[in-house]
Fold:
Amino acid sequence: MIQTQYTGANCPHCHRKLTLLLTEQPDTSWALCFHCRKLTSFTGEIPLKLPASKLAPTQKQQISDFIASLPVDDHYQGPGSQLRLADDATFHRRWLSLAEYERQFSETLEYRTPDLRTAPATCKWCGKALPKGRRSFCKDSCSRNYTKVTFTKRSTPTVPYRIACRDDFRCQITGVDLAWHNRFGQRIPVHNGAMAIHHLIPVAQQGTDYADNLITLSQKAHLAYHQNDPEMVAKITALREQRLAGPGGEKMYWQ
Structure:
């Protein structure tokens, strides 16, 4: 049996890349998705959902036992900067804290919340002209609303948030604006719900949370990459190779 991956062979359930298990008889080959843990039949051209009615009871049990033995999507049995050993002896996926980032990579993640105002003499929240003596907000309520959205009520962890700040809350491939616009039409440095932080080297392939390994993408571009869109794959691969050749390339993956 040969295990391989094929461009364009995507899971019919979640559209991620499939792992193909090919035998000498093509009509008995299988396709396995490690993301949603679904087993499908593979005809050599397109993956098809596997009808359970075509399987014998013993085959169903074997497949069920095999899929149950696979690690779930957010658990990885291996080292990595973003893997934490849990009480059940598995490694749980979560983002590094800033202190952990500094210890891990011997440098700080200095990207601060960007000033997205189009005019420096206007309020960051409502866009009105600033009174004399004020530099950011026209009144205290605007400051409180801004702080609540960008800090106290922010749902994004600190590391991916600072990566989005570095990238000006724009997709690094398509240039789409991913910042939230409040009721005054002001561009606020929090995502609009359509943002994804992508690992150039995947976590499952020993990729780290180092800044050079992370880019801001729109969810549409992120999905297109994982669906093997040729243009999107080519652009993101070129960016990955460029960063790997840079001074921080060695920190992008675990050696």
